[in-house]
């Protein structure tokens, strides 16, 4: 594939940025890839594994001359880092971000953005429970959705160009209004994460069931929750703090619904439980038919080895 | 490996029974395997795929002459089926079950059990979201825990024999008091399932987010919940109705904890959220170190294919 940008600057070098670096390099989509990370350890790792061509201690240095700047830091620090880099952005450059929340990013980043720069907020719906520069892999975005929430008056050519980059990395693209994005994500990602964190926390506290038992007998169900609850704490703290309204809204719906099922259990209403559990099966089928998950039992994960 | 039982009768031919049949056959652990299923379609499938040597419409016929009878029906019908088979059980036979709840099974099954028969309640902590006779596979129990909750006065030889069968299928065995079993399972399996069902139900109801969006953008988190919420509705209805007290107890703890986190989000208490999310990470590490899950990112599941 041919080069889409001259110089891409990745601000923050975690799972998403390191996957982008690998995918961009694998497909030859940029002439040069540079990065910035706050931690000296991350910077050293990035150089050691050849993730980027150059790495900078200051974000302002990394963005110089870049025609694409990608903000890959936690949502809570996007505003501050934009303030730092703004005076150093090249005129005509595109700035995008990969934050899981869009309204808060637009409010924090927008005011600092120079007029001569195209700011196009984005969000790849892709990730794993692992983090850091070593966690990335080039195929992370294949067949995943990369949503853009362009602001009014966005330059169509700049939007097409950044879309062509992520599509070349294997992603599907779509556009959405920022507030609707935040509501959809509260349903399909943010609230499920909070619930998984909560359930794992409950198990950890329960004194009548030992910590050892929780780990040893972690059956299907809980085991899957622990994967989600192993996600990056800083990223998720910021998600909940910045998508507060939508998360609290969906949490309210969730609690109502949970109380209804809890009451059915208490009253012994088997018919209601059976009907409910039958309906939820259909959604799984839809997701598999849409190519968004595998139909292999238990995700087709490897059977844990046993020493014989 | 050598034969452990002469004739094994599997009562019910779903995921667990069909996995047992395959594992027993693969390792030559029984002289003969017979089965019973209520549905004619299941019986026809079992014969077609060669799951068992013979299949019976009536459970009472299947158990005749069997030295091991395994009850693999939903917890809610264990009592009734035991009443049917009791007069036909061979003296000296062992009867075990694979129900996810133990106190209710003991209360329902125990009173019907003839004195000359060894009743040893059991529960394999293994399964997938799929059900029926075609869903089974021989390695389902490898490195999984198979818990037994033996009653007072259980014959040690009969217990050792049934343990040796499930160990030969690859399982690890352990003993536990029935009520403690039900509490542990409420934490590591039953409550997580109810929560997953609830979250998927909420997404399904939400009119401001379309059904199509929920499926299309099902991100990590929600996607995993849908797998759990695709589990067998009859089995899970019975689990909640029969492990009512422990499930309601853990649900109460869960809701308390969720309200605390919800309040932290509302108040903007980032420090509390960050600390909480950091602690839950450690549990995941414990489960992986205990060999109960893979450390591959996203369970190592296959990247969905994309038409190019």
Description:
Chains A, B: Residues 6-295 form the Prephenate/arogenate dehydrogenase domain. Chains A, B: Keywords: Amino-acid biosynthesis, Aromatic amino acid biosynthesis, NAD, Oxidoreductase, Tyrosine biosynthesis. Chains A, B: Its EC number is 1.3.1.12. The structure is a homodimer of 308-residue chains. The first copy, chain A, is of the alpha/beta class and 308 residues long. Chain A has 2 domains: 5-176, Rossmann fold (3-Layer(aba) Sandwich), CATH 3.40.50.720; 180-268, 6-phosphogluconate dehydrogenase C-terminal fold (Orthogonal Bundle), CATH 1.10.3660. Chain A has 12 helices and 9 strands. In chain A, helix 6 (156-168) links the parallel strand 8 and strand 9 (172-175). In chain A, helix 4 packs parallel to helix 5 (103-109).
Brief overview, please?
The structure is a homodimer of 308-residue chains. By secondary structure, chain A is α/β, with parallel strands linked by helices.
Helix proportion of chain A: 40-55%
By oligomeric state, this entry counts as homodimer
Number of strands of chain A: 9
Q: Biggest interface in this structure?
A: A-B, 112 and 112 residues
Strand order of the largest sheet of chain A: 3-2-1-4-5-6
Shape of chain A: globular
- The number of helical segments of chain A is 12
Proportion of beta-strand residues of chain A: 5-15%
Tell me what the CATH architecture of the largest domain in chain A is. 3-Layer(aba) Sandwich
Computed CA radius of gyration of chain A, to the nearest angstrom: 21 Å
CATH topology of the largest domain in chain A: Rossmann fold
Structural class of chain A: alpha/beta
Spans of chain A of 5+ residues with little confidence (pLDDT < 50)? none
CATH level-4 homologous superfamily of the largest domain in chain A: NAD(P)-binding Rossmann-like Domain
Major β-sheet annotation of chain A: 6 strands, parallel
CATH class of the largest domain in chain A: Alpha Beta
Q: Taking all residues together, what is the mean pLDDT of chain A?
A: 92
Summed up, the domain count of chain A is 2
Pfam family, one (chains A, B): PDH_N
Keywords (chains A, B): Amino-acid biosynthesis, Aromatic amino acid biosynthesis, NAD, Oxidoreductase, Tyrosine biosynthesis
EC number (chains A, B): 1.3.1.12
Domain Prephenate/arogenate dehydrogenase (chains A, B): 6-295
């Amino acid at each position: 594939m041919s080069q889409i940008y001259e110089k891409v600057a990745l601000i923050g070098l975690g799972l998403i940025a390191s996957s982008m670096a690998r995918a961009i390099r694998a497909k030859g989509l940029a002439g040069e890839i540079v990065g910035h990370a706050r931690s000296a350890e991350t910077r050293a790792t990035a150089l050691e594994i050849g993730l980027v061509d150059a790495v900078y201690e200051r974000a302002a240095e990394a963005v110089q001359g870049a025609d694409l700047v990608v903000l890959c830091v936690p949502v809570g620090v996007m505003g501050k880092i934009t303030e730092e880099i703004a005076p150093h952005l090249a005129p005509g450059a595109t700035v995008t971000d990969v934050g899981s929340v869009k309204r808060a990013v637009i409010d924090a980043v927008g005011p600092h953005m120079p007029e001569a720069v195209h700011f196009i907020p984005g969000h790849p719906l892709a990730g794993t429970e692992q983090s850091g520069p070593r966690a990335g892999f080039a195929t992370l975005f294949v067949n995943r959705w990369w949503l853009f929430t362009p602001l009014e008056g966005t330059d169509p050519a700049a939007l097409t160009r950044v879309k062509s980059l992520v599509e070349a990395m294997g992603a599907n693209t779509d556009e959405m209004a920022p507030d609707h994005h935040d509501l959809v994500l509260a349903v399909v990602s943010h609230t499920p994460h909070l619930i998984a964190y909560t359930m794992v926390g409950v198990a950890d506290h329960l004194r009548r069931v030992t910590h050892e038992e929780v780990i040893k007998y972690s059956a299907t169900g809980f085991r899957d929750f622990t994967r989600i609850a192993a996600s990056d704490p800083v990223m998720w703290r910021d998600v909940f703090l910045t998508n507060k309204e939508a998360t609290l809204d969906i949490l309210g719906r969730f609690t109502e619904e949970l109380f209804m099922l809890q009451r059915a259990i208490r009253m012994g209403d088997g018919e209601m439980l059976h009907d409910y559990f039958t309906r939820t099966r259909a959604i799984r089928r839809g997701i598999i038919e849409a190519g968004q998950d595998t139909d292999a039992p238990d995700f087709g994960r490897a059977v844990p080895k046993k020493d014989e």
